[in-house]
Amino acid sequence: MKDALLDSRGGQLLVGLAAGGAGVAGSYAATGYTPVFLVSPIERFLARTMPGAVVSFAITTLGSVGQQLNLVTAVVLAWLVLTVGAAGAVLAGRTASNRLLPALGTGVFTWTVAAGLTGELALSLGPALPAAGIVALAQVGDAYGGRAEPISSKRRRALSTVGVAVGATTLGFGAGERQNRQATRDLELSAPGADRRDIGTKLETAGSRTLDVDGIEPLVSENFFQVDINSIDPNPSADDWTLTITGEVEQDVTIDYDELQSMTATNQFSTLRCVGDSLNGRKIDTALWTGVPLQGLLEEAGPRGDCECVLLRSADGYEVEFPIEAFNRGLAVYGMNGSVLPRGHGYPVRAVIPGHWGEVNTKWLTEIEVLDREVDGYWEQRGWEGTGPVKPTATLRHDEMTENGRRLLAGHAYGGLRGVSTVEVSTDGGSTWSEATLSEPLPAADGDGRAEDAWRQWQYTYDPPGDTHTAVVRMIDESGTVQTDEETGPYPSGPSGWVSQEFQR
Length: 505
Hints:
The chain folds into three domains: 5-183, no CATH class; 196-382, Alpha-Beta Complex (Sulfite Oxidase, Chain A, domain 2), CATH 3.90.420; 393-504, Immunoglobulin-like, CATH 2.60.40. 36% of the residues lie in helices and 20% in strands. It is built from eleven helices and 19 strands. Helix 3 crosses helix 4 and helix 6 (125-143) runs antiparallel to helix 7.
């Protein structure tokens, strides 16, 4: 047929693109946003092979957009690979005059690629079937396309093929999104070792101590930030999860999920801050974590060796090394704010290490290795130095003019294990200082005193000193040490300095 869509190179490419898009969407529909999504292995490969300088630039300059670009790149690469396979199958079929080869070849190629990347034989039918279906649809259109108006007939078939592909892609991504919503819904924590009454009391206390300022996060964050080395999170099963303690120990120890949940748990407020955040950034939040002290788990194994350091490993291949002294303050966490730990925050189990950068608070924790010598973890191999104590910060999150013509400023202050004693505000660029109002401290894990590792909110209202002025914020920790005014960027060991902002009356 002279007006056959699949006889032209342009038509073959168009159908290949449509089949590739339908294949990616079909994989998403079958798997959702999980590691067996066709795109995930490509995205992981890119994340691990990218030079450290590129990674650092993406973090410090692009922020979360950099990771999204990596994901988009992986999607495009997956789409192009499937496109090449489908177009090649169409071309081979037309060359060999074999009517079965285009659709069958597309399906087999797509299935082979998906199965090879993900290791999932059955789920790889998710991308294979819609990709093959798009090619088969184009073949049917060519067979019954009509001969009266070749050009317009070909155009209609091309548009129909693309339209069906767009529809299939939309349906595929819609089905994948439904899976994601179901997988990430909050589930009430019911672990035998967790004290539900204590959780409720602590959360109520946090609510009552939150300042009445709408423009800042409450003391227990409602939108907790997420930073991962991959765009697509691991999705391990609690039924199959185990935590092994190995290395320089008297005996290896393996703990499963039920065993961990049966142990007496601690409910602890802790703030996490990302080492790659900007000075006044938003990658800092607080939650009530429920978990088992890591020190007790390690003592069961009998740690030895002279290094006095541990390496934590994650289900996604992440590794981080830091001192046992810091590790012994931490928890193996399975609950967050009274619910089962969400997948995006490390389900089934993560580490929470008080007073240290978010880097060491390993999600999807699977192994603790006691080392005989120091090693570089994932981020250290890329030039970062984020395993030490977190740097203190006072953020400026909110400003507004009140009805009586005064200006209200508000934010958070966090000093790690040093605690927050005072927040001071200057409205003349740092020449003079006044004390801000602080929220009451969050309660300690044992209920006696303040939480050792949690932020506080602050607010300050004043009469603007002129048409233009600069407000500066700083914190003072419990030992009386004033937060340093030396301003540094996030690379390589985290941001520091006083936050300032210029206002006009």
